[in-house]
Task: inverse folding
């Protein structure tokens, strides 16, 4: 009986060892797959090291920035490019982001800078953004973007708002004209249909009257 118990214990220990080895193997394969996924998510115009995305010195502008960035990214380097603005919502999905290097870019402080200004204002540590300054327009050249007032930025948006308002008004006027034309066609069609219906109903009655004569 004792030998049977020893064999049972040995068998159970062997099973446990096998399961442990299989578990370690699966964890290792999972780790390799995660590394592969992280590597494949690195944008071709940038280089990746762990959770750091380096897109510096690539001549990037707002239209050529990478659109697919791993959500695990903690740091992005965008310095020494040709960025005049940052696309709306660019940083919003990166919940783990802790630092962004934005130095040495020709920032244009017009309506398109509002998103970057808003994002900078939300940062607890603004010391790393103390050199993010406007390159244009002339009246705002050298100003820190984070300290721009809404009036200063808004003054460069007036023409844009006026153009948008004009386009909206023209579009609304065109819509009203098209609706009026369609309404006129519908009214004409209904009147003609009504006339045709009356003529169609009256024709048999006239034939019956003539036959009775």
Result:
């Amino acid at each position: 009986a004792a030998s049977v118990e020893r064999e049972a214990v040995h068998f159970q220990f062997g099973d446990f060892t096998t399961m442990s080895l299989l578990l370690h193997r699966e964890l290792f394969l999972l780790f390799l797959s995660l590394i592969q996924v992280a590597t494949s998510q690195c944008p071709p115009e940038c280089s990746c090291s762990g959770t750091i995305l380096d897109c510096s010195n690539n001549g990037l502008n707002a239209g050529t920035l990478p659109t697919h960035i791993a959500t695990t990214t903690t740091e992005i380097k965008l310095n020494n490019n040709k960025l005049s603005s940052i696309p709306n919502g660019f940083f919003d999905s990166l919940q783990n982001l802790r630092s962004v290097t934005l130095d040495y870019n020709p920032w244009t402080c017009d309506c398109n800078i509002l998103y970057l200004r808003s994002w900078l204002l939300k940062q607890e540590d603004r010391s790393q953004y103390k050199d993010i300054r406007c390159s244009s327009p002339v009246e705002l050249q050298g100003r820190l973007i984070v300290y721009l007032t809404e009036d200063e930025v808004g003054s460069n948006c007036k023409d844009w708002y006026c153009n948008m308002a004009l386009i909206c008004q023209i579009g609304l006027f065109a819509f009203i004209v098209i609706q009026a034309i369609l309404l006129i066609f519908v009214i004409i069609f209904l009147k003609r249909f009504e006339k045709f219906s009356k003529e169609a109903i009256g024709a048999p009655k006239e034939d019956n009257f003539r036959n009775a004569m």
User: Anything to note?
Assistant: Residues 158-213 form one domain. The chain is about 50% helix and 10% strand. Confidence is low (pLDDT under 50) at residues 35-39. Helices lie at 2-40, 114-121, 150-154, 158-212.
